[in-house]
Sequence to fold (380 residues):
Amino acid sequence: MASLIGQTLGQYQIVAQLGHGGMATVYKAYHPRLDRYVAVKVVHPMFIQDESFLARFEREAQIVARLDHPHIVPVYDFNEYHGQPYLVMKFIEGTTLKGVLANKPLSLDEILKLMPPIADALDYAHRRGVLHRDIKPSNIIIDQAGVPYLTDFGLARMVKSGESSLSHDLLLGTPNYISPEQAQGKADITARTDQYSLGIVLYELVTGQVPFNADTPFAVVHSHIYVPPPAPSTINPAIPPTVDAVLMRALAKDPDARFESAAAMVSAFTAAVRDADLNTINAARDQMRAAMPIPAGEDSPTIQTPPPSIESPVHDETPGGTSRRVVEASFDFGNVGASIRKMGVNIERENAPPGAPARKPKLNQANASLSVEGSLREVG
Fold:
């Protein structure tokens, strides 16, 4: 999508680009009559291929606009520009949690101060029937006074609610923070899917890294579905068993095994820290965070691909124990966009003994390869 800097969308004069993701581009804009700056999120053209999208967008925008919470970025307006829907939100002068962590880890006191208002904001939205679906550090903004805000409510919901071929069976979320049930494309996800993602954020704050990281988004998603997360104390031995237990419960594969709310998770974490008389997190976490690259799934904006159905590839298994799954997708990597016409994952299957059930393939670098047909384009 071409840059809109210098153009006017309704009453909003676009002055700068703030960010670019898989579903939209965010701009800083000026509203002359009210003499204030706002954030304008313009949805990419690929999401408006069906005629009913704008009606759904308006309906869902109205739901999100009703969210009135001191730690949720409010929606002011919505409209369309040359057929492209856009949302107008409060402009927060500050830095995302992702940006903060790129400079230094949070202290334990800062973690304990950050998490309760974010959890409260999430539970507030859940009580009103709104799921976020993309909780991650880049969707948490901390203003210049240190006040945290949760942003990007509802955009994934707006896309997912559609019946178009584009929205059907899309995996909406960011690989490093996606819940197992969301990664599997289940339609009946609950508030506990957001709790899982917030649990990943808390895990990262405490240990200095996300539980699952790999060279490809598919490998990360596979781990969320099938692989138990490493106990935080295996990464940082200074983490006490009480904190281990809270984080492992938050990341349970079964949603029913998690906490009943985001606030309950954070309350349990706070109690675990106090019970263990933990006053600080040792330097090992700080050193690991400084040496660790930004997680691939967080640095790459939200992906839109069919959910990984590794047990059911599109093509039949070929001789030699190799199966192939072909999907169509679109990715954005920083300022480069990739329009993927065909992407195949070749998975080597282990041969099972005669009469034994087929073994579920494990997706990793040793037994999988990726082939892509498509094109690249510069964004912005």
Q: What stands out?
A: The chain has three domains: 8-90, 94-302, 309-378. The first helix runs from residue 53 to 65. DSSP finds twelve helices and 14 strands in the chain. The two ends are 8 Å apart (CA to CA).
